[in-house]
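forwarding from the other thread:

> can someone predict this with 2-acetamido-2-deoxy-beta-D-glucopyranose?

sure thing
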Amino acid sequence: MIVAFLFIFIGCLWSFKRSSRTRMLSTLVLNAHQLHEFATRVLQKSRGTLEFKGPWFAKMDFIITSDPMNVHYISSKNFSNYPKGPDLRMILEPFGDGVFAADGNLWKMQRKMIHSVMKHNKFESALEKTIYQKLENGLIPVLDHASEVGIKVDLQDVFQRFTFDNICMSVLGIDPNYLSFEFPQVAYANAFNATEQAVFIATLCQRV
Ligand SMILES: *[C@@H]1O[C@H](CO)[C@@H](O)[C@H](O)[C@H]1NC(C)=O
Ligand SMILES: *[C@@H]1O[C@H](CO)[C@@H](O)[C@H](O)[C@H]1NC(C)=O
């Protein structure tokens, strides 16, 4: 996969000025290491919705949107018109038949179940309490400690840990204390991180 990726990368550099389609793909590949920042800039420039056209051989045409109205329409109002399809299911395979990868009735059933939990007012107050506690007993003490001792921390890592603890507490009812002074390694947090990276790379390489 990496060889294929490099091949396309070199191919794109070679043909950089040849067509706007190739240029779009090469710009994407060149910015893969800072995709969030890149996507934010590009989406801002195109007022929230962008049509991406890859080179003809890569079959990489897609639309990317951050407009809440579009997201709502696609993911909820007219979902059956936007099936994820077998390609995306293959990429999201590590997530099994969960709501991210499912289509059709399976998706509908899971969405209904999750929705009924989330819209329950007890869920909202429990979530608020969980996040507040983690903020008070985790995030603030860790940042205070780092500032007192004068150590550098990677804020992305800190907030990833903060989010992970909150999700575990809200969904599983346990606190893995991934966010603590020692910045511990937690096997399933690492596994989840590795899965995310793999899905991301698979998304980029899928057509290549
Ligand atoms: C969903 O999309 C289909 C196909 O474009 C369209 O015919 C239908 O009216 C849409 N439904 C809603 C609720 O917008
Ligand atoms: C997740 O993985 C990436 C890439 O391997 C790494 O840079 C990052 O520090 C990891 N994050 C955590 C919280 O382990």
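The CA atoms of residues 127 and 170 lie 6 Å apart. thats all i got for now
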